[in-house]
Amino acid sequence: MANKFLALACLRNEGSGNLSPRPHYPSMPRYPKGVSGEGSSSMVMMEGSEAKALFSVIGMTCSACAASVEKSIKRLPGIREALVDVLNNRAQVLFYPSFVNEESIREAIEDGGFEATLIRDESNERSIQVCRIRIKGMTCTTCSSTVESALQAIHGVVKAQVALATEEAQVHYNPNVVSYYQILEAVEDTGFEATLISSGEDVSMIELHVDGVRTDRSMRLIENSLEALPGVQHVEMSPEFNKVSLSYKPDLTGPRNFINVIQETGSRRFKAKIFPQEGRQRNSYRREEIKQYYRSFLWSLVFTVPVFLTSMVLMYIPGIKQGLDTKVVNMLTVGEVSRWVLATPVQFIIGRRFYSGAYKALRNGSANMDVLIALGTNAAYLYSVYSVLRAATSKEFKGTDFFETSAMLISFILLGKYLEVLAKGKTSNAIAKLMNLTPDTAILLTLDDEGNIISEQEIDSRLIQKNDVIKIIPGAKVASDGFVIWGQSHVNESMITGEARPVAKRKGDTVIGGTLNENGVLHIKATRVGSESALSQIVRLVESAQMAKAPVQKFADRISKYFVPLVILISFSTWLAWFLAGRFHAYPKSWIPSSMDSFELALQFGISVMVIACPCALGLATPTAVMVGTGVGASQGVLIKGGQALENAHKVNCIVFDKTGTLTIGKPVVVNTKLLTNMVLQEFYELVAAAEVNSEHPLAKAIVEYAKKFRDDEENPAWPEAGDFVSITGHGVKAIVRNKEVIVGNKSLLADHNIAVPVDAEDMLAEAEGMAQTGILVSINGEVAGVLAVSDPLKPGAQEVISILKSMKIRSIMVTGDNWGTANSIGREVGIETVIAEAKPEQKAERVKELQASGYTVAMVGDGINDSPALVAADVGMAIGAGTDIAIEAADIVLMKSNLEDVITAIDLSRRTFSRISLNYMWALGYNLLGIPIAAGALFPSTRFRLPPWVAGAAMAASSVSVVCCSLLLKYYRRPKKLDNLEIRGIKIE
Fold first, then answer.
1. Which of 148, 461, 532, 549 could covalently link to 162 via disulfide, CB atoms 3.0 to 4.6 Å apart?
2. CA pair distance 911, 898, nearest whole angstrom
3. What are the catalytic residues?
4. Which contacts of 885-888 are long-range, i.e. CB under 8 A and separated by 24 or more positions?
């Protein structure tokens, strides 16, 4: 009793003011699909997905308050533990996100009478995931803006991007606050159909189709068997589709194991196979959409052509004219009845998609293209119905119907949508081609403990698991990322990296999935499969780029908010102006066509204005060009991360280059050798390599690598044995090789051993240092035998690239952490006048900001590791990346071939793409600005020219098709001819 009194007292004293006499507890969230609320299987899933949340709780004054908070939290389902700290006003909750989220917990605490705030830390930020959703039914920018606004309004969604061109959404969300089920529901609530492409929750995910399952018990049996496998994180069963979705850790298990378990569970009664790949699903969805529009257009033609003939052609054929003019009831004719009957299915059955789209838009408080079409066609159809009914009830009224207007409008718009979808499908060809690079099948090798082949088996390439050994025959595509364990060949990697020359592969070299093996047989060990592969990363990067909006697109988004309401206003004003002008005889009666009166003429002008205005063209102007541009870039080894990068890159007028690994190869090589004694070069390098092979220093490795060229077996050279090996840090090495004392190092090392350095050697060292090379002395038995010059040489074509950039009015600057002597020497050699040396990573970023403050639009070109601060600070960060190392977060553009010439390609492509975007906007805006006045009758008083509504509808459909086709011309982009004629000089590194 005392405890209860104490609890009431402290609640009364805390002064929250938010307490209600009947506390409300949030309803229990639904269990996820395929998870029951009880049983061991659900507990396995729960244990694998535990999350932690920390709340600041204001208003607690004693232990009774803490107990009250704890009780409020534990009432929720999916709570594992709740720890409440009164002194620090904190509550730490361990929970299962499948059953409850952070927002529900916060609400429960507040319903208990306390103020709660989720404390966000780095772990919460790291938990942000990205899901991709396919959205069906969007027709213009207004639709995509509506969906985007609805997604961004969801608590727990950090960022949402909706792309009209790809009909997809990319949502960054916190799974501890909101689930992707709720995100899908939010899209559905806006009136569009949503399908999850990927949830972003799992590293690897796969869907299997299971045949032979008859009962729920069998499905549960399969589910339990799969969940028992090590590495399986989550299993979701969809009995209605006989589908099993699994997320798993590829290091522990893989798809072959899942198929075997399913088949063994049913004593070979069940058969399992992998669902089609995402790319193929996307293509099948696109094909189905094209078929739907094609079918709708053909059916509309079946009804529209007779309507057109009876109203505009057959009326001029004497025999048929009398038949059509035959009276049915009063003034109602056979022709009017037949047109009414034929136009009605087109208006309400074939055209129902426009009603549906208009209803969804209006329900969400916006107006889109469907609203314009529905209003325009309904105005024509309903007036025609009024005219027909009045003729049927009057013996004098002879009305004119516009059934051909509504039917032909819908037919031409469907034709336009069909052509638009057809063209839009081609804008994403780059991704489709990338996805199709992976071969359908692969040859799996089974090896014994000694590495001998036991068997070969041809399998579906999607069944490859980590550490599998795959055989790649000549002419076949590499089935997976991995490394060569046996064999030699040349592999054409142009389809991934854009590099045209085949790359030599031998034991230990890495290979990329999707590349083409040219001449030899290779055995490779799979290291990265599924979503981890380089190809999958490239596809994801290109998809993200195509989702990202360019800043210039905000212009279209702003216009789209007011476009449709403004068009409706102009349309109504047009009708009213012409109607009043006709009523008050402001124009001669001779202007009115014989087949209609002044009201009908005004109505036609109003409808024409309504249907000629096209918000679609504006909405498609930027995304289609960005899609094609990023796709073309990917095919040339230039990965551009979205519209922002494209827009900034076209303005670049200053480029900051890092030195090591960017202007230079980043790998020391022997560039010169001078012998000072009578020796065969092969014998000289045998002794030097034997001494240096035991050193880990980069210069030593460069010397050994160069020495291999003088051996018959370059892959596994056998060097003479070196005795008494000593490595002197910062100076060099010493060893006894073939009873000769060999010393390799700098002047200090030789001076310590009292070895005199001749004048010729001194001159050679000075010459090497003047050329930014490192001079290395070689002493044999106490005498200087030779001098080696080791350098990090310029990349082939570096000088030419800087020269071309100058001709493009782009300033080049070099920033490096190297010493001033080397930096100035490289700067002179490459042709860069402004050199900044001995700069730390953060100082590079400061230099970039200084240039931006001076008015430059700066691009930074670096290796993406030490240069990441500068890459982020620059307007455009360009990362020099090798074929498999493409996930460089800091960069806006990744140059996969590591060729400097691609800097020019990236800038030129961005300029071409942005000019295409500008052209698209000029076309879309110019079309509307020109078309609307003509449709409104601006030319009618002087020329008697007017646009019938069906012609206006055809023009509207043609405008969006024209914009897409204009973007598609980017597919024929070719890099500047200057680069094709580039004379590449430099050292070829094998």
1. 148
2. 21
3. 658
4. 886/534, 886/537, 886/538, 886/541, 886/639, 887/537, 887/541, 888/864
